[in-house]
Write a structure and sequence with these properties.
The protein has 374 residues and is of the alpha/beta class. The chain is built from 14 helices and 14 strands. Helix 5 packs parallel to helix 11. The N and C termini lie far apart (72 Å). Bound molecules: pyridoxal-5'-phosphate (PLP).
Amino acid sequence: MGRCKSFEFLTFEFVSDFDIRISDFKKDMGYFRQNIEKAKAYQPGFQPRQTDVLKLNTNENPYPPSPAVMKVLTEFDAEKLRRYPDPIGNEFRQAAAKLHSLSPDHILCCNGGDGLLTIAFRAFCDRDRPVAYPVPTYSLYPVLANLQNCRAIEVPFDSQFNLPPKLTSTGAGLTIVCNPNAPTATFIDTAELASLAGELEAILLIDEAYVDFAEADCISLVNDFDNVIILRSMSKGYGLAGLRFGYAIASPSLIEGLLKIKDSYNVNALAVALATAAIKDQKYFKENVETIKKQRKKLTGQLRALNFEVPESRTNFLLAKCKNGKAADIYEKLVQRNIYVRYFDLPALSDKLRITVGTGQQNDKLVSALKEIL
Ligand SMILES: *Cc1c(COP(=O)(O)O)cnc(C)c1O
């Protein structure tokens, strides 16, 4: 490797023929890194092109975002699109900090909650630092582990989906607990997660994408533990899945470290403005969430009456067990009627359907279709 000084302040390195020959790249191994070659892409829920379908498969909010969001959208100044955005989305950070009674340096804006997960894997995982999480859970975690080339330690839940005690002794660099969990819709108490945070030496990320529909959350842990990161999403409770906005809540020193990893402009100007308008309108948010909780209760009763086993949900979806085990069959028959729910062909899930709670009308349509099918 030679060094060439060309300009006053600039040095650059040039590569000799010899350096090129010792590279271990072999074209017959494929262009992609080995872990990418063998990786499977994340399978998102089906997004049908037609609009005349009933879509209860990806846990979107059935109601539109706050009118305050639509107002900011229609009045948005094009000048703000010409310029680069604020790299850290301070406007949103301040609004979120106020809501959670923290300071803005506890908040990191992200391109969806998924954007935070990517940042966390890059920050805390590699060949020597595995990730650990209870299963079944969000199917994006193993995909990200594979991309990062780290081992994924999957610790099974028991049949009641209690926190597995073995999580404390995996030695992982990153432990993720999705709470409330998807796709089980179950919830683990804050006190239990506090004790897990205390026992773990490395990072505990609590994925609270669905917490807006639960009765408690883990934000208080951020003040008590310097190894806890909370993930929040604007996709579910705020009805902004198309906007791609989420955020992290953690100690300022963790946020500072994560800032080094994020893309320089990971949240765009329009997204910051609209997400800020949404989080400031807590009145609309709370009414929306209450409506969905009421519909959730009603739909749970209707499905139980149809002989599905439906545990109490702490999210905006239900995991319904078909007692005859024919979940795949019911799924197909719903598709024939243009109704989409989610079916996972996985050991603990193949007898169950995950159903997003829709509007009252949508849920009734689903229930009538199920009555016909069964
Ligand atoms: C929806 C979801 C997220 C984040 O989704 P974004 O749309 O990227 O904000 C994270 N975790 C779980 C379990 C989810 O369901």
